[in-house]
């Protein structure tokens, strides 16, 4: 485990929050939001180990701009193994994992879930999208997902988000969406909505 790119913030419970950053981010980016949403939970940030055009990422693009599916799969396996290792190191509960992911990081958590590897019970996915059409048919009706989408997002198309909703529903994920007319950036309004949704889940 390369601790250099992992941040750990202790909490008073043993239910970990895994923070997965957006393109160009790092393991500490989402901590201010995680502190608001999950004040009591221990927080683990994991930095994507790839670098493209000077920006950190969890998986690569091909030169034509399409997503490299081999990299996506390899890096997902790496991420899942790393998460398992950190959870074990800090003796946290691997049955009570929450994900807080933004963009590239949210896409990783969603891809893992749609390929039958739901390592979390709850996920707050900020501006996620489908990055693969390689799905498993696994049903997981105990997975709670909250996802945000902006009508003016230059990265996530309406078609992509609609497919995401449909794939989540097919698997009986409990999905709640927050839609706005904003773009790809994180807004205060969506964080407030996510906070309310988390509260309603308790
Ligand atoms: C991705 O690469 O996962 C998406 O395009 C979002 C992003 O740019 O990070």
3D architecture notes:
This protein is about 35% helix and about 20% strand. The chain has about 200 residues and is of the alpha/beta class. It is built from five helices and nine strands. The model has no long low-confidence stretch (mean pLDDT about 95). A seven-stranded mixed β-sheet has the order 1-3-2-6-7-8-9, sandwiched between helices. Bound molecules: D-malate. D-malate binds near residues 22 and 107. This is Alpha/beta hydrolase.
The gist of it:
By secondary structure, the protein is of the alpha/beta class. It is built from five helices and nine strands.
Number of helices: 5
* CATH fold description: Rossmann fold
Percent helix = 25-40%
Give the ligands present. D-malate
CATH superfamily: Alpha/Beta hydrolase fold, catalytic domain
Strand content: 15-25%
Query: Stretches where pLDDT falls below 50 for ≥5 residues?
Result: none
Question: How many E strands?
Answer: 9
- The main sheet orders its strands as 1-3-2-6-7-8-9
Order of helices and strands: EEHEEEHEHEEHEH
Known CATH architecture:
3-Layer(aba) Sandwich
CATH C-level? Alpha Beta
Number of domains: 1
Structural class: alpha/beta
- Look at the structure and give the mean pLDDT: 96
Radius of gyration: 16 Å
3D shape: globular
Distance between the termini: 33 Å
Please state the oligomeric state of the protein chains shown: single chain
């Amino acid at each position: 485990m390369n601790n250099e790119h992992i941040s750990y913030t202790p909490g008073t419970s043993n239910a970990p929050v895994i923070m997965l950053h957006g393109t160009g981010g790092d393991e500490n980016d989402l901590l201010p939001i995680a502190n608001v949403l999950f004040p009591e939970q221990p927080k683990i940030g994991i930095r994507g180990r790839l670098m493209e055009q000077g920006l950190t990422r969890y998986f690569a693009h091909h030169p034509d701009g399409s997503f490299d599916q081999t990299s996506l799969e390899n890096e997902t396996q790496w991420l899942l193994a790393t998460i398992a290792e950190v959870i074990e190191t800090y003796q946290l509960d691997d049955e009570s994992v929450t994900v807080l992911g933004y963009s590239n990081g949210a896409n990783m958590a969603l891809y893992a879930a749609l390929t039958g590897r739901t390592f979390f019970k709850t996920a707050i996915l900020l501006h996620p999208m489908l990055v693969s059409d390689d799905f498993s048919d696994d049903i997981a009706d105990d997975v709670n997902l909250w996802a945000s989408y902006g009508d003016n997002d230059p990265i996530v198309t309406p078609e992509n988000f609609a497919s995401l909703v449909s794939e989540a529903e097919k698997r009986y994920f409990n999905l709640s969406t927050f839609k706005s007319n904003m773009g790809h950036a994180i807004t205060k309004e969506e964080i407030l909505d996510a906070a309310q949704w988390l509260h309603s889940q308790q």
